Write a sequence for this structure.
């Protein structure tokens, strides 16, 4: 499978995540819900790493990679805490589009921090995503 197939699967699972999470957080604290979800993800992903034999290469990971993967994990944690809090007080159909403004942030941050070129087409696409998120959030 290519990057597009994996990306579409990611989007479909993200959509399922929003719906399942909205149902699951009914009546419980959003931080506790995030902790439960994160525990499941932790166990699930380590099982996959073990099952595919990827654990054997843990010792070969550079310090730089460890640092940035840990920072990414912290950012993910904050993102999930905020996402679950937003879901607990808002409509999934409004929260999810605003959450997807991350695409716009990635375009900007990739230009700043990774040196990726922000083309006219990417800028227009980012603006359309932002406009769509705003329209859907307040529809």
């Amino acid at each position: 499978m290519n990057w597009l197939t994996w990306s579409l699967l990611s989007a479909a699972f993200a959509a399922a995540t929003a719906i399942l999470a909205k149902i699951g957080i009914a009546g419980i604290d959003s931080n506790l819900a995030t902790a439960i979800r994160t525990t499941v993800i932790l166990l699930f992903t380590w099982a996959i790493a073990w099952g595919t034999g990827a654990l054997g290469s843990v010792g070969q990971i550079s310090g730089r990679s460890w640092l940035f993967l840990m920072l990414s994990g912290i950012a993910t944690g904050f993102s999930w805490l905020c996402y679950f809090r937003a879901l607990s007080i808002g409509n999934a159909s409004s929260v999810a589009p605003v959450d997807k403004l991350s695409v716009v942030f990635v375009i900007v941050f990739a230009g700043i921090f990774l040196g990726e070129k922000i083309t006219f087409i990417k800028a227009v696409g980012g603006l359309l995503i932002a406009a769509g998120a705003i329209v859907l959030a307040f529809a």
